[in-house]
Write a structure and sequence with these properties.
The protein is built from one helix and twelve strands. It is mostly beta strands. It is 3% helix and 38% strand.
């Protein structure tokens, strides 16, 4: 999937789980791989999440703002892993300071399939005007696609 994205910037990731949850992530930067295959590369860029369905009782699309200090994407080399700060997980890609993990399995070893992901958003990140569905933002899913977003 990273090879498909290449050097494209301004990316839109859309994912759906096996139930009713669908979310998106807009990354205004690149998924840069490190030169060292065992290393990681962090790109500081604006990141926004969107609930498309399933996370809020009201339905509809809701914007989830990522705090400024967490506006980054970290990508592991082909033989590496991005490690969580607390040591409780790893993956091939971490988005928004660990709010979205692609290719993660835990135990310090990333999975090879970027479609395996885990979304976690802190309650304080959620919009005040929406009624949150418990566990609506913590789930494993299959990533539908990552594509360059189209500007009007």
């Amino acid at each position: 999937m990273l090879a498909k994205v290449g050097e494209a910037a301004d990316l839109l990731l859309v994912a759906k789980d096996t139930g009713s949850h669908t979310f998106a992530s807009h990354i205004e930067g690149q998924l840069k791989q490190p030169a060292d295959p065992t290393g990681v590369e962090t790109t500081f860029c604006p990141v926004t999440f969107y609930s498309i369905s399933g996370a809020f009782e009201e339905g509809g699309i809701a914007k989830i703002t990522v705090p400024h200090v967490e506006q980054r994407v970290t990508v592991a080399g082909t033989e590496g892993a991005v490690m969580a700060n607390n040591g409780c997980g790893s993956g091939k890609v971490s988005i928004g300071g660990g709010r979205l993990w692609l290719g993660g399995v835990g135990e310090g070893q990333p999975g090879g399939d970027l479609r395996s992901c885990h979304q976690f958003v802190r309650r304080g990140d959620l919009p005040d005007d929406k009624a949150y569905v418990p566990d609506g933002w913590q789930w494993l899913s299959a990533v539908a696609d990552i594509v360059p977003s189209q500007s009007p």
